[in-house]
Design brief:
- This protein has about 350 residues and is α/β, with parallel strands linked by helices.
- It has 14 helices and nine strands.
- It has helices at about 5-30, 30-35, 40-60, 70-75, 85-100, 105-135, 150-160, 175-180, 195-200, 215-230, 240-245, 250-255, 265-275, 290-295; strands spanning about 140-145, 165-170, 185-190, 205-210, 235, 280-285, 300-305, 310-315, 325-330.
- It has a five-stranded parallel beta sheet with strand order 3-2-1-4-5, with helices on both faces.
- It is elongated.
Length: about 350
Amino acid sequence: GLDLEEVLAFKEDLAVILISSLFVLLAARLDLAQLWQLGPMVLVLLCVVQFVARPLGILLSTWGSDLPWRARALLAWIAPRGIVAAAVSASFAISMHEAGIADADKLVPLVFAVIIFTVVLQSLTATPLARLLGMRQSAPNIWLLIGANSVARAIGKALADQGIPVHLSDPAWEHCKLARMSGLPCYFGNPQSEHAELHLPLTSISTVLAVSPNRHNNALGVLHFAHLYGEERVHSLRSSEQHGKANRESATFRARQNLFGPDMNFARLSGLLGRGGQIKATRLSEAFDWDRYQEANPGAIPLFVLDARGKPRVVTGPVSPLAGELLIALQPPRETPTTD
């Protein structure tokens, strides 16, 4: 129940300060005149490092793999040296000087020349080269749903029908099997596990929706992914009204239990879908605006709104979609008249 976000942020800031201080200390031992004393042959070494050693290393290490040549070319170009090389060279230079090895004092400026060259050159050219090779990753756009139950599958199918890529996750194999049979990719396991880091497209995820009936699974997912993607991109559905009131041990989790509004929970959604409710998408217009939609669909529960450009947003409270926007809503089952 502890909020570790500020502790983790402080740790990251402290690491940056320490590494920066180490760079300053190591660079303080370097005399710029020593760089000029290396002579023109240092350019030959830099070219060997950039155009021979790195490509050869990538060629050997990826031999027999299924990596495309574009990926190998990008890996062969990007390999900036940094604090590890600087620290090791400084330590080795002292040991070599004490051992009486000639030109030991040239090791540190030589390594710093490699660091400066690789960092500047590769940092400036990495993005254009990735774009040229078609290897630049697009903006994150995958919606991760924690849960592959009937509610999660219905929500995932509604989003996928609008061209929004979704990925489900569930530790129950039966749920994952049904999701995959519906054409929805599903990770079998806990999405916050170390195994998931290797098999989930974490770098392509833009939004996380916790829609598991188990509030503990939702809480773990919210606390884990809120730190990775930001709290504004992580939402959780209450398991039930009782569970919503019981979650008082975590302010972070309670604040994120806003999926589809404060009055919505898993039990209610599951009941509506089980009785024949359907999630449908409707394009609003000037003639058929939000007011007329409510008149034609009484009791409809807004879930998502896509703007005119197709960018989706989650409904977390009162909403008034505009003309031209697409509304994804759960329409309750039609009441069938009874006969005596």
